[in-house]
Amino acid sequence: MGEIEYKPSTQVMIEASVGSAGDPEKNNNGVSINEVRADPSPSCSYMLTRIHAGYFRISLSLGSQALLWKILTRPDGVSPHVLLHVFSKVPSAVCLLLWCLAVLTQFSLSFVYVLRCCFHFHLVKAEFLHHIGVNYLYAPWISWLVLLQSAPILLPNTSFLYLILCWTFIVPLAVLDIKIYGQWFTTKKRFLSVMANPTSQISVIGNLVAARAAAEMGWKESAVCIWSLGIVHYLVLFVTLYQHLSGQNSLPTILRPTFFLFFAAPSMASFSWNSISGAFDNTSKMLFFFSLFLFISLVCRPFLFKKSMRKFHIAWWAYSFPLTFISLAAVQYAREVKSHVATLLMLVLSVMSLLVFLGLMMLTAANVNRLLRDTDDPMLTFCKNSKSAARVTK
């Protein structure tokens, strides 16, 4: 018998390309529809759905940086220390240019957000209902107040225009306070123990910035009233967060840069109390030392921010203005104490604030398209889910 020749069996594998009928998220070429939509330049309507109140962190950082350099270059506060002569030599045109850039950014963001309110009001409503997004509704008004305080000599804080503009931006903060602070202890589903997260401290910062603005105008009683409202709520909020009493509304990993708000609030409290009392007294010093302790505690834990630093996000701007606020308090402390250690501390914090600010400016300019197409933004995800839920109920 002849040998039987065995041949390996031939397997025929058929790959079925699943088109839009099998997966609505992909087209016939197997490419995600989201990727196809992301290829062209974003339209105006698309941008309105992406830019939320959290983007005002950029103008807030610009305005606070302008305020820092306005104070550093002010001749009446220059310390005799030799290292500080470099600040006095900074041309006033540089400070004016920085302030103009901040105003331009603020006007641009405000214009876009007004259009968002007109054409996509449901998204603004979703922000207000979100436990994180509602806190950033303070940011536009805080930015305007900081820009007023950092304005050049062309707009003195004793002018009638300054007074009108200042109270125009303080009143919306008071309205938000009544609404949000009232919900914290009267609305069961929005109790502070449920809603508290690090971004809740933005409301406190808003009150403290408003208090300094009122003090700069000479309205001392109003300034003390607003300052006390902010500092009391900060103490309650800090204890709630410190004991981890917040409920199911945890903070997403990508928003961990907002932990820098922990030292931003006491820093601004110290800075604003200096304007109210007219001197950097023991109250201002205690608040400054407390903010410095919180700052060091966070800096010593870089792994806390490791996951949030994998991809550039708009939340990174939460690093900038808290550093500027603590630098502002350090400047006033150095002027009061007039010691080498205080001056060195002021220099270190100011340079660190400037470097972080410049780095974020370059990263933002290089990643504008990525920011507008970012799908990991918690606010955008919540707005999308809210819109889908509304359609289902209809």
Automatic annotation (TrEMBL):
Pfam families: SLAC1. InterPro entries: SLAC/SLAH (IPR030183), SLAC1/Mae1/Ssu1/TehA (IPR004695), Voltage-dep_anion_channel_sf (IPR038665). This is S-type anion channel SLAH4-like. Its main location: membrane. The chain crosses the membrane at residues 91-115, 136-154, 160-182, 194-215, 221-242, 254-274, 286-304, 316-334, 340-363. The keyword Metal-binding does not apply. It is a multi-pass membrane protein. Keywords: Cell membrane, Ion transport, Membrane, Transmembrane, Transmembrane helix, Transport. It is found in: Cell membrane. Belongs to the SLAC1 S-type anion channel family. It comes from the Eukaryota.
